[in-house]
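User: Please fill in residues for this 437-position structure.
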């Protein structure tokens, strides 16, 4: 992508309304703009990152046997009356009337919607288990929308729902999503710690939040220091096998958010306890028959009995993750994207766009890398070099290549790793080979 043909409205000044670093950097890097409180316009650069996160979430859901579908953003109020949540949900729900005066709502979550589809389509235990998900915009009229995309009113969520014949089956589904989440967040370069959590308006008695460590997080958390060295790397995962041992490894040690904290246990941990703040990027729930019973989602069991299905739901804050990753990965110069979610893999800077030789050399590098299928952002503008370097650092592209008059004479370009700051002068051919797999 040539920057001259792109749309990247960066800001020099720090926007006054942004209180935390990810919000400031997303505005400054031209990733998004506010439409109204808690509602955002995603600009091309921000959208690229959002799509990358979505792709990783989707690949891992698919890998764990979850099937993608798409439910609407607008739902009929009747469904929520059936479950009893229409009144209980309160002012966070955006209620709408259509021209026929029918009551609708902008979905804050989709338990009712999918339970209604399920009860019309699944009749027998033989059709179970089922694990389904979608990635769709939600609306919650939050009391205090803040911190940009981290606590929005309109936000993108991946929500999955499991249907099983009994509790054992439901726990298997829960464990599947638990391990799926560990792998999903690890692939994004994040350390997300699973913590026992409150179930709130979703309900149920078993729930874990996945929390990314960040000083600006909204949740107060405390956890055993061993979490800092836990990783799924090199763990063989049989998605259809028994995942309980992996789950146990992550639930053996103490970790809790807010109200769930146990001061007695914390005191016993002494120096092994780390207290801090974090961002909830995922939340999983097992709630049994909370929706299936009132909504009549039953199946015929092997015994011939009609039983309400056992359910769970599993959310990931896809748009929140964009902010959470920045909170976890930035420096004074700007964002430092983990490779897996970066909007572009390489930023190419032509230091002297008014120099024919320089431009010819930069164009060649650009064309070769592009032809090799590398995602590359090419700053071909007639701007001062200082501005170009600062912007490339700000938007956080993981690797930078600089073509300047001195290098052109020697047949080299400068390579820089954004995260470590490591630099090298490399022959043009070596650079191209470096990125072409
Ligand atoms: N139905 C369940 C699971 S699918 C559910 O709605 N869970 S939730 O309320 O915990 O939301 C799931 C995830 O969405 C959260 O972990 C969080 O990452 C994200 N999320 C929730 N509210 C917001 C918000 N206001 N802005 C951005 N992301 C949010």
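Assistant: Residues filled in for all 437 positions:
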């Amino acid at each position: 992508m040539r920057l001259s043909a792109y749309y990247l409205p960066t800001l020099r000044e720090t926007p006054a309304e942004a209180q935390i670093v990810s919000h400031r950097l997303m505005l400054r890097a031209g990733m998004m703009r506010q439409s109204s409180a808690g509602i955002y316009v995603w600009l091309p650069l921000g959208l690229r990152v959002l799509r990358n996160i979505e792709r990783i979430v989707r690949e891992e859901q698919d890998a764990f046997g979850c099937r993608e579908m798409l439910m609407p953003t607008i739902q009929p109020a009747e469904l929520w009356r059936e479950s009893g949540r229409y009144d209980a949900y309160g002012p966070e729900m955006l209620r709408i009337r259509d021209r026929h005066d029918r009551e609708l709502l902008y979905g804050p979550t989709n338990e009712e919607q999918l339970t209604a589809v399920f009860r019309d389509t699944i009749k027998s235990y033989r059709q179970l288990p089922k694990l389904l998900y979608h990635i769709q915009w939600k609306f919650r009229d939050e009391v205090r929308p803040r911190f940009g995309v981290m606590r929005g009113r309109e936000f993108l969520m991946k929500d999955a729902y499991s249907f099983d014949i009994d509790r054992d089956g439901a726990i298997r589904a829960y464990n599947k999503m638990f391990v799926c989440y560990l792998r999903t967040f690890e692939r994004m370069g994040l350390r997300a710690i699973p913590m026992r959590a409150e179930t709130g308006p979703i309900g149920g008695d078993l729930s874990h939040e996945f929390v990314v460590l960040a000083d600006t997080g909204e949740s107060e958390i405390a956890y055993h220091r061993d979490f800092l060295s836990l990783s799924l790397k090199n763990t063989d995962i049989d998605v259809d096998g028994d995942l309980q041992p992996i789950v146990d490894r992550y639930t053996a040690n103490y970790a809790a958010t807010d109200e769930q904290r146990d001061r007695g246990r914390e005191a016993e941990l002494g120096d092994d306890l780390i207290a801090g703040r974090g961002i909830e990027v995922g939340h999983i729930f097992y709630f049994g028959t909370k929706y299936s019973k009132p909504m009549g989602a039953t199946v015929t069991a092997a015994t011939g009995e009609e039983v309400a299905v056992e359910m769970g739901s599993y959310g990931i804050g896809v748009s929140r993750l964009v902010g959470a990753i920045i909170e976890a990965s930035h420096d004074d110069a700007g964002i430092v994207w983990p490779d897996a979610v970066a909007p572009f893999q390489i930023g190419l800077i032509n230091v002297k766009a008014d120099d024919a030789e320089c431009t010819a050399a930069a164009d060649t590098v650009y064309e070769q890398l592009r032809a090799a299928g590398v995602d590359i952002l090419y700053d071909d503008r007639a701007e001062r070099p200082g501005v170009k370097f600062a912007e490339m650092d700000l938007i956080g592209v993981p690797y930078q290549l600089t073509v300047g008059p001195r290098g052109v004479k020697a047949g080299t370009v400068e390579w820089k790793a954004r995260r470590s700051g490591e630099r090298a002068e490399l022959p043009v051919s070596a650079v191209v080979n470096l990125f072409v797999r």
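For context: The chain has two domains: 3-335, 344-435.
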